[in-house]
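agent: user wants the full assembly modeled, not chains individually. Plan: 1) parse entity lines 2) check alphabet per entity 3) run joint structure prediction 4) return tokens. Steps 1-2 passed, two entities, 680 residues total. Proceeding.
--- entities ---
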Amino acid sequence: MTDTMRRIVLASRPEAAPVAENFRLEEVALPEPEDGEVLVRVEYMSLDPYMRGRMSASKSYATPVEIGETMTAGAVGEVIASRHPDFAPGDKALGMFGWADHGCLPGKQLRKLDPAHGPITTALGVLGMPGITAWYGFNAIGQPKPGETLVVAAATGPVGSMVGQLAKAKGLRVVGIAGGPEKCRLATETFGFDACIDHRAHGDAASLSAALKEACPDGIDIYYENVGGKVLAAVLENMNPFGRIPVCGMIAWYNGASDDDMPLAAAWRSVLTNFLHVEGFIIFNHYDRFGEFVAEVGPKVGAGEIRYLEDVAEGLENAPAAFMAMLTGGNTGKQIVKVS
Amino acid sequence: MTDTMRRIVLASRPEAAPVAENFRLEEVALPEPEDGEVLVRVEYMSLDPYMRGRMSASKSYATPVEIGETMTAGAVGEVIASRHPDFAPGDKALGMFGWADHGCLPGKQLRKLDPAHGPITTALGVLGMPGITAWYGFNAIGQPKPGETLVVAAATGPVGSMVGQLAKAKGLRVVGIAGGPEKCRLATETFGFDACIDHRAHGDAASLSAALKEACPDGIDIYYENVGGKVLAAVLENMNPFGRIPVCGMIAWYNGASDDDMPLAAAWRSVLTNFLHVEGFIIFNHYDRFGEFVAEVGPKVGAGEIRYLEDVAEGLENAPAAFMAMLTGGNTGKQIVKVS
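--- prediction returned ---
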């Protein structure tokens, strides 16, 4: 057991897309757990699009990461010291340890992982935050009904692929949007989407809208929104009356708006004339549903009925590069970093 | 009884704001009621912002008025001939008779008015379509709770003034937005708003946003949306987490978007980061609630607990001018035309 640890802090705020200089790797003293705390050696950490929002100083749904502070992240690893009665060395635990190879948190903020539930990385993806994000938005806001049509972008990502599989299981027509023919093939062959549109093959919203119209002959009833940009514009032209749009992200806009975005007036007109229900949410407000989610989805993951893909980068020092690539679609499946 | 009637038809579609040439007054033969139909001599007709939408050919929630077709409108008048068992000459009835001095419709499409419920013009406003629009959006989508803050624009209009009074009665803080100091005075003195902001005194959304921030020290929980434009932009900067936005109109955009509108990305960001529930609706989908609405609100109107203002133009031939003035806020209160 070493007496130092490594972590990556926010060195500066990005102007638009994050660059390497926004991050700094540091070596600091390993903390000792105080009463009630647990020290964990991180094995895998999660990279998720929401982290881009935390790098900006502007008001958001969560406090921004301060300059010099460890970047935020969920992570899983092994308990190496514990002053909390529920945790003992050797236990596996999930917590918000950040971009770091060790973490020390109050035991009540950790979740102990049962090795019988499969690889511990699933707690970062299909059975973790992205999984419940997909499940909650699809069910609670999407209000799906068999025979309806659902569209979701980032279709092979951890949220999109879960939304698609939940929707297929419920009897909906499911159309994905993804970047490139390989991801589109994955969406239909691995995740069972009825169709998948390559947004890179469509230069503007009008072209994408025409492709959606073809792929959704009965229109769109649910658009699970995680990207914004031209996909949103194209979708809004194809929504059915009384459609629902759960909004959990807008990755296309995390680095700023574009000149060719749909005018707000046109979007609002679609909301009004199609009687759309648009609702933003952040899953951290709905973790009271976690038990219900795991009880429903866990067995399906165990039985192979719900599939998932992981994209594992090696080494904490490579987290910034993996994160920047993820924001432009460079990964395939849930982005994870193997820390130790 | 004459054997001709007058009507105003759509002569051409407006490019932006409607102009006089878009309308044409015609004299045609008076129809004779067929079996099940009722012929009515119109006394008052309603002018409402939604009619602007019907003048455009683009897809909307309702079929556009065709060129040469009578402009759509609700109206009240006296039955002068009936081939429907529920109606007799001398009865007062409400129906979609259009911009015309007579109308002939199936009796099942009409509602007989009880003179005991006050002046028949109330069936066009406070106890009619605008009234139930306000009541439904406020309650069903707004989900108001005492102590919350509500903002509504066009505060002295038939919808805005009803929303404000319903909200005050329920214990909310109510802030109106209206055009000019006289309307603002009406909002606070006649309709009991806690405050009213003159949007004409604020040249851009930033200035209006600052005024809203001052008038809503606890933020905005419900924005009853009927205008769009810079008001929407200013409101979205002041919404509270879990806010609700019923969308029933966007009069500022009926003639087209503006260059200085808020970018869609910024609006979407507010929806996401504030967990907003935005929902468009048209009241014609919810007329099953009409009985409930009248039972609740009718007695309050009768008792003077809910106040209303009417702005009556004289003569069918003046309907186009009154309509064009209404779209730019030239009226005060429910716009009605006295037809005969």
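agent: reporting back. Chain B has two domains: 4-125+308-338, 129-283. The first strand of chain B starts at residue 4 and ends at 10.
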